[in-house]
Amino acid sequence: MKVFDDRRCTLGEGALWHPRRKQLFWFDIVEKRLMSQCGDKQLSWAFDDPVSAAAWIDDEALLMASAHGLWSVDLRDGSRAHLCNLEHDNPLTRSNDGRADPFGGFWIGTMGYNAEPGAGAIYRYYKGKVRKLFSPITISNSICFAPDRSAAYFSDTAIQKLMRVALNTDGWPDATPEVLIDFSEDGLNPDGAVTAADGTIWIAQWGSSRVVGYRPDGSRLRTLSVPADQVTCPAFGGDNYETLFVTSASKGLDAGSLKAFPTQGMTFSTADATKGLPEPRVIL
């Protein structure tokens, strides 16, 4: 792993490669910023509430999840237009992990600001409406999709399990979620995830300084070390989608940890993974 962007995020998350702009976007949730790098230019957009995940709409706009809503964000000036509410009547929660699905929808999870047990849920935004899929969830994470559209994956970091659920032809859950990987015996904490073209599920593991690739049957394929303790979210991008980008967080780390790893909270990249796929477009 090498440093892709040297800005230290308090809580870096939501990595997204825009396939048309050829540009990486990510968030610092705590600092309420959408971030990007275009060439050698570091970019950021500031908002008045926490922002955490995104998908692409067109060449100039992203769908963005804020604490209590979904928005269309114009990348030319940072202005945003409201699409729908998300737990707007619950001041205890905010959005967390999210990703576009292969059917034009967008899955987005919520959680309590202080990770209150069972305070969150996972929703799907599809054709202008949002619907709750799963609850209760404590820390929503690892939302990603099988390349053949057959299944979705998600985790509740608090219970240390990656779930798999079958999807129907419109992308809605079509069965009861089942445990694919149980990380609890090894004390591992699944965070953000993305699938590769071959179906491998790459999962950032919070507190473990690594991203791990798992086969679709749940067996471990390989591990990539990251020079940060709190690894949060991977995304494929770059030429031919052969670069894996990874965000991280510096939140809660003491001076000793920051000194040991000066790159804590930065965003990284490596070509030593596998080939990914373009992120799907969200259809409003």
What does this structure look like?
The chain is an all-beta fold. Helix content is 2%, strand content 54%. It has one helix spanning 255-260, and strands at residues 2-5, 12-18, 23-28, 33-38, 41-46, 51-58, 61-66, 69-74, 80-85, 93-100, 106-112, 120-126, 129-137, 140-145, 151-156, 161-166, 178-182, 189-195, 201-206, 210-214, 220-225, 230-237, 243-249, 267-270. The strands form 6 sheets. It has a 4-stranded antiparallel beta sheet with strand order 1-24-23-22, with no helix packed on it. The protein has 1 helix and 24 strands.
Topology:
Blueprint: E1 2-5, E2 12-18, E3 23-28, E4 33-38, E5 41-46, E6 51-58, E7 61-66, E8 69-74, E9 80-85, E10 93-100, E11 106-112, E12 120-126, E13 129-137, E14 140-145, E15 151-156, E16 161-166, E17 178-182, E18 189-195, E19 201-206, E20 210-214, E21 220-225, E22 230-237, E23 243-249, H1 255-260, E24 267-270
Antiparallel strand pairs: 1-24, 2-3, 3-4, 4-5, 6-7, 7-8, 8-9, 10-11, 11-12, 12-13, 14-15, 15-16, 16-17, 18-19, 19-20, 20-21, 22-23, 23-24
Task: Compose a concise summary of this entry.
The protein has 284 residues and is mostly beta strands. It has one helix spanning 255-260, and strands at residues 2-5, 12-18, 23-28, 33-38, 41-46, 51-58, 61-66, 69-74, 80-85, 93-100, 106-112, 120-126, 129-137, 140-145, 151-156, 161-166, 178-182, 189-195, 201-206, 210-214, 220-225, 230-237, 243-249, 267-270. Helix content is 2%, strand content 54%.
